[in-house]
Amino acid sequence: MSNRILILGACGQIGIELTARLRNMHGADNVVASDIREGSPAMMQAGPFEIIDATSKAQILDVLKKYDIKIVYLMAAMLSATAEKYPQKGWDLNMVSLLGVLDLAKDKHFDTLFWPSSMAVFGSTSPKMNTPQQTIMEPTTVYGISKVAGENWCNYFHSRYGVDVRSIRYPGIISWKTLPGGGTTDYAVDIYFEALKGNVFDCFLSENTRLPMMYMDDAINATIQIMEAASSQIKIRTSYNLSAMSFTPHEIAMEIRKYIPDFSISYKPDYRQQIADSWPTIIDDSAARKDWNWKHHFDLAKMTEDIIANLKKNTHLLV
Ligand code: AKB
Fold first, then answer.
1. Do residues 25 and 165 both lie within one domain?
2. What's the CATH number where 183 sits?
3. pLDDT computed for residue 46 by the predictor
4. How far is the centre of ligand 1, averaged over its atoms, from the C-alpha of 62 (Å)?
5. Are residues 225 and 314 located together in one domain of the fold?
């Protein structure tokens, strides 16, 4: 029986690394990558690739049938900062894509869906310290509103139609292989690249803005772990809080200085400061740890050591 996987939004920050990991695990032919535009030659040559607009249910259905897909990861999304510039487009992409795939799952065109939520579901009225799994959720961004609505749709399709949908509230995700785009936490990726290029880093958040973050390796592990868990272990069908570390721009700069002593950072907060200020400082992810044994492996020190070693070996990325 086929256990083929489709990734929608495979060319985004998480999609690229998720596709590579799933292809390693299951064989490239069993993992169909897709995006609205062509991916890198590496991704397109390594296994099947389809152009799909994630808001088109018809295009998704064609590919589900063509490859006999059983598992879908819907990774296409517009992130917080970009969605504040294009609210209608952000809402449309984030919601229409989700409602389309939920409907396809309801009609049994595939078995299991992964959909990423975000810590952006929380807002200024949520507790900032040890933000609980269940608490006040009054997000102030379009992205956050779309994620809260999406979580509730997931829960509804699970309880009403039995759809096996699983979701994680990602914190800011940091990687050295792929760049993010349009997020409020992106500074924590850019900072490593600028430091290694020998540049001063102009940070768009203020020095003491503490946000929850996670290294990509942990984020991919969590994603695969929740999808591999038995359905009975998934007790929450909105989305699970997920956490690894929390740090400020000042703290990440100090960590980088251990390797690049003359690294220098300046602070020029812009509109993204207000978004960051509405988000949690530290997240309580005990439900994920208890229900499906989630554990993180990287803290700020270990992540920084790994990123700097890898970027030094891959200087072609520093263009
Ligand atoms: C963003 O900054 O928009 C994302 C997120 C926290 O979901 N990284």
1. yes
2. 3.90.25.10
3. 94
4. 31
5. no
Cα–ligand 1 centroid distance for 171 (angstroms)? 7
- Asked if 250 and 237 sit in the same domain, the reply is no
pLDDT at 180: 82
48 and 132 part of one domain: yes
The pTM (predicted TM-score) of the whole model is: 0.97
Same domain for 119 and 180 = no
The DSSP annotation for 185-225 comes to: STHHHHHHHHHHHTPPEEESS-TT--EEEEEHHHHHHHHHH
Report the C-alpha gap between 314 and 174 in whole angstroms: 17
Q: Looking at residue 179, what is its pLDDT?
A: 86
Q: Which residues line ligand 1 (CB under 6 A)?
A: 79-80, 118-120, 143, 170, 172, 183-185
**Can you give the residue range of the structural domain that contains 296?**
176-213+245-318
Q: How far apart are CA 221 and CA 239, in angstroms?
A: 16
Residue 26: predicted pLDDT: 97
Residue among 78, 79, 186 to mutate when testing ligand 1 (max atoms within 8 A of CB): 79
Give the tens place of pLDDT for each residue, 286-306: 999 999 999 999 999 999 999
Q: In sequence order, what DSSP letters do the residues of 119-186 get, joined into one string? A: GGG--TTS-STTB-SSS-----SHHHHHHHHHHHHHHHHHHHH--EEEEEEE-EEE-SSS---S-SST
* Number of residues that this document lists for the chain: 319
User: Mutation test of ligand 1: which of 118, 223, 283 has the most ligand atoms closer than 8 Å to its C-beta?
Assistant: 118
Average pLDDT over residues 263-273: 97
Q: Are 207 and 282 found together in one domain? A: yes
How do residues 195-252 score in pLDDT, each as one tens digit?
Answer: 999 999 999 999 999 999 999 999 999 999 999 999 999 999 999 999 999 999 999 9
> For the chain, what is the domain count?
2
The residue nearest atom 7 of ligand 1, judged by CA position, is 118
Is pLDDT above 80 for 2? no
Specify whether 143 is catalytic: yes
Q: What is the mean pLDDT of residues 100-122?
A: 98
